[in-house]
Amino acid sequence: MALSLAIAVNGAGIGVVATAAGNRVQFSGDRSIDLGTVAVGIEQTIQTRFDTGAVLLITGKGSGGPTAFVDGQTFTVVNDRGVAMLFEFDKTGALVNPNAKPVLITNAMDEQAIALAITNAINAHSAAATPDFRVRASQLGDRVYLTNDRSISFDPTVKGMSKTSQGIIISGAISAQPFLLDFPGGNDEPGHRDIPLEAGQGVEQHINVSFGPDVTPGVTTIFYNFKSQYDSTNTGLQNVITERQKDRAREAFQLWSANLGVQFLETESEGLTIVTGVMDTLDPAFPDVLDFNSAGFRVRIDPRFGNSMLVMDASRTWNDEYGGDISNVGANSSWFINAMRGIGAMLGLDKASDLPITTVMAFGNTPYPNEPTPEPIFPGNHDIVHGQYLYRPDGVDVDLYRFTIDLPDGKEGLFTAETFAERQANSSLLDTVLRLYRENPDGTRVLLSQNDDYFSSDSYLELALGAGTYYVAVSAAGNSNYDPTIEDTGLGGKSQGVYDLQLNFRSEVDDEATIRDRDGDLTPLDGDADG
To answer: What are phi and psi of 411, to 5 degrees?
Structure first.
């Protein structure tokens, strides 16, 4: 199967080289691999290797274009002991510089073939053939990885080769995976109060009867908007929501999203409509309209979220700052808190007047006698339990990447790992978590470092690493308490989407390359006095 797959890819003419080895196929020249929904029996495994040397990126061919390699061009490699060796690109079999070592190329070679020719030339003069020169090279696609080198320089006319960092960019996705269990929080839970349907005009059930437990794998994505004209009869009613109120609504969506298995995306006109306007636009006589007149808003619910609307009363004087007094539902009450309640209602939450005041959907339930009003929590603990019943944070997907660092004993280098999801050109909704593990000699793995948010919702790790085998894990925020050796041990991811993972490694400078006093002692330099 692996051999057949490699033959098919190599014959496709897409510039990707596939090599079969046992039951694995290694690709070079690819941007990403999408296995689709029918690739049963194929699993994507990414492995990479870092060492102390430079990386040469080959961008030129044997002929054609300004970056093509020309007969007689040279480059020099200096090993870690200061021994230099000159290499010359040779198309004719006659060297221009008789002291150079030949790199045999032809006009028909592409970037990968030239990378292989450079690798072969350097290895032909390794320690086995030239005792004083012990640089080793390995080729992967259009890159040449060097070991035991100190520096490399090029003939000024060489345009098809450059030095680059030992880095790799991997495209991946945290996607929905099946999860068979319901979360707690339903109206039929053992110990839950039996509240008559007619209580509170039918909206005191904690969970709206039009909604039910989440049975969809992964995170639910819901659109919302602030469209200017909101009357379905086209009579010209204008949304008078202010920019400050839009910010409060975005904060409310973010808070619900941070605690439930739902992610929101702002649009021009799709999904949940947020309005400050005339409440009479929504007629409470209709069964899909919930009237919270005392709190200053009405809601139209739609379990499919195509026609949902929250109308905040434009005639009321609102406090449009973040937060506010959660017990105040009257004059000068918080637009933000009531928007939290209205959005909760559109998501399927009913009133919960029997629960403590710290519950947003309790609508300012009377505080305990003679006790101060507690500081509000957005959303409250009971809101989260009910909300997670409707929208499970059931993200279990974890992408694990293995890499090896080859360094001499006692040496270290700077390793960085960084995710790009929110910062992509087409921003992903994924909120990533990065974890780094080291593999011990006995095969066990230990967690070295972890990061959730560094560049907004994107993650970043930076630390010094020595030789060994390591694993980088990417998951969604909320899903970080998993065992990397056991599949599906995590839970709690609250987002999903595509990402790019960038791995880089830069080795430390050897003693031979440090600045020394005349007496030969090493002198540390600290130009910015940061220690």
So the answer is: -95, 150
Q: How far apart are CA 268 and CA 239, in angstroms?
A: 13
Whole-number pLDDT of residue 30? 46
Cβ burial of 491 (10 Å; 0-12, 13-18, 19+) is: middle
Q: Does the structure show a pLDDT above 80 at 8?
A: no
Sketch out the chain's domains with CATH numbers: 1-45 (no CATH), 51-164 (2.60.40), 199-390 (3.40.390.10), 400-513 (2.60.120.380)
Q: What is the pLDDT of residues 330-360, one digit of tens each?
A: 667 899 999 999 999 999 999 998 888 889 9
Output DSSP code: residue 331: T
93 closest CA partner among 85, 104, 77, 84 = 104
- Digit-coded pLDDT (tens) for 60-98: 999 988 999 999 999 999 887 788 899 999 999 899 999
Assess contact for 484 and 471: CB atoms under 8 A: yes
Query: Which candidate, 452, 451, 476, 457, places its Cα nearest to that of 398?
Result: 476
Tell me the C-alpha distance between 345 and 350, whole Å: 6
Residue 342's H or E segment, with its range, is helix 335-347
If one counts every other C-beta atom within 10 angstroms of the C-beta of residue 387, the result is 27
Distance CA(224)–CA(227), nearest Å, equals: 9
pLDDT per position as a tens digit, 441-476: 998 999 999 999 999 999 999 999 998 999 999 999
What 436-440 contacts at long range (C-beta under 8 Å, 24+ apart), as own/partner pairs, is 436/461, 436/463, 436/470, 436/471, 436/472, 436/473, 437/470, 437/471, 437/472, 437/473, 437/484, 438/468, 438/469, 438/470, 439/468, 439/469, 439/470, 439/471
Residue 474 exposure: Cα atoms within 13 Å on the Cβ side: 31
H or E stretch at 343:
helix 335-347
Confirm if 171 and 44 have CB atoms less than 8 A apart. no
Spatial strand order of the sheet with 143-147 comes to: 136-140, 143-147, 55-58, 161-164
Query: What secondary structure letter does DSSP report for 126?
Result: S
How is 11-72 classified by DSSP, letter by letter? Answer: TS-SS-EEEEETTEEEEES-S----TTT-TT-----EEEEESS-EEEE---SSSSTT---TT
CB–CB of 504/165 below 8 Å?
yes
Query: Is residue 190 predicted with pLDDT exceeding 90?
Result: no
How far is 93 from 102, CA to CA, in rounded Å? Answer: 8
Q: Are the CB atoms for 18 and 26 separated by under 8 Å?
A: yes
pLDDT at 519 over 60: no
